[in-house]
Fold this sequence. Notes:
- It comes from Lihuaxuella thermophila.
- InterPro entries: 6-blade_b-propeller_TolB-like (IPR011042), Beta_prop_Msarc (IPR027618), Ig-like_OmpL47-like (IPR058094).
- The chain is an all-beta fold.
- It has three domains: 2-323, Methylamine Dehydrogenase, Chain H (7 Propeller); 332-415, Immunoglobulin-like, CATH 2.60.40.10; 421-528, Immunoglobulin-like (Sandwich).
- It contains no helices and 45 strands.
- Strands 1-2-27-26-25-24 form a six-stranded antiparallel beta sheet, with no helix packed on it. It has a five-stranded mixed beta sheet with strand order 32-38-37-34-35, with no helix packed on it.
- A hairpin with a 4-residue loop joins strand 18 and strand 19.
- The protein is elongated, with a radius of gyration of 39 Å.
- Mean pLDDT is 88; it is low at 1-40.
Amino acid sequence: MVNLIKQRTQSKHGRRVLITLLVILLGLPVSLIVNVPKTFAHEMAVTTNTSAQSNPAIYQDKIVWQDYRNGNWDIYMYDLSTGKETQITSSPNNEWNPAIYGDKIVWRDFRNKHAELYMYDLSTGQETLITTYLGTTSNPKIYGDRIVWEYNNDIYLYDLSTGKQTQITSDSYLQSDPAIYEDKIVWEDYAGIYLYDVSMGTKTLISDLHSTRVHPRIYADKIVWKDNRTGNLDIYMYSLSTGSTTQITSNSSEQWDPEINGDKIVWRDHRNGNADIYMYNLSTATETQITSNSSSQSNPAIYGDKIVWQDNRNGNADIYMYALASDNEGPVTTHSLTPSLPNSNGWYKSNVSISLSATDNESGVSKTEYRINGGAWTSYSEPFVLSNEGTNTVEYRSTDQAGNIEQTKSIQVKIDKTAPVLNVQLNRTILRPANHRLFPIRAQVSVSDATSGSVSWALTSIISNQPDTSSDPLDQANDIQGAQLNTADTTFYLRAESWKGRGRVYIITYTATDLAGNKTRTTQKVFVPPY
């Protein structure tokens, strides 16, 4: 004899949990097994605008849904790891029923006035038309490179890797609502629930016509559906490995729209007078109420420890998510700078753009903020420019949806955009008479820099407006002597020579360079008057 006993308990966070106890009497002493549910983490709103959002789907940290904020249904995506929302479609017609696997999103599209299937590849940014039928195409699902859908009451398959389309059913009955896992496709049929093995090319009846059995979903070797064989809709499961059927729910209310991932099944449940989301853990044999507010929740989907659904608590349909696994770790934020590297002394000589990127693989990123030189914390939304000269300290941190705050990180950015001050004075600026004599020139050099400091300076060039030698028999060579270019030389010799009595000009250049690489060049002139 099998007795089904239900007991209400209270979880750590105040959520009602139904623990299902199976007591099996086989002529032996009664054995009572109680499985305590996991500690739950938190709930978050994925969308908060006043329009309608519905039909969510989830894969890893990406959630997709259909959204009416622009006056028609578009497909949107939210990345939990980055906290970024992306509009996937923007045509003026309606796009419905998104599904996601990996970096590929498929949906039902009406841009050409009839229902077609489109796919968007997140990795390439390319959109692809999958079908071009003139009839009714609906309920797309995707797993790996395989997309399934229903068209004119038959089930079809498209393989992205081969570009091949296959009609799976061609019966006179109605086939609808397909789902796929690896090489196995399930759907509802007027005759019951069927499974098609793509690799084997075989079709198998899973559940027959004795009751209404609809909305089949598959994960690994388990198929779930809603079933009214007891007079109201309950959730059932079939195991391909054992060939056995298990009743998951048995209360007198209605349970709808099951979804399965791993060892967890979620569904919409009406036992409390409104539609709530429930979950059953096959590993622990525990049933858990996920939502408990008085509004209606529907269309659940699950991936790993994350459940998403459509929620009407705010007067319009929003998308919500519940993270089953406890999130005790803060996000991880990294920075990047443009220009990416300073000079060898660690100084920039221009403004610096700073970008922050935060990830959180559990509950997702809630916000990222930064502050400069101990100022007020500022919410980060886009790269910001640092222009203050001197040594700047930039601190940053992120907070996840569970409230965990990352330990503050900091970077130093040193900026010096101002060239150093360079003054040069010569002991003489006129050489006379022009008698071919060498005159000693002594320079007094002073430099300063208010920011990066440690200025280096050097004599970098001495030139003349006349050639060093000429046809004049009195002209002598080597008019510039003793100058050590590119060193801190302050003493050299210039010849008092003026070719053909036209006058000569020597131009002496000193260059100062600060630690940031800013340079200042100063020139002084020495004149040789004509004869």
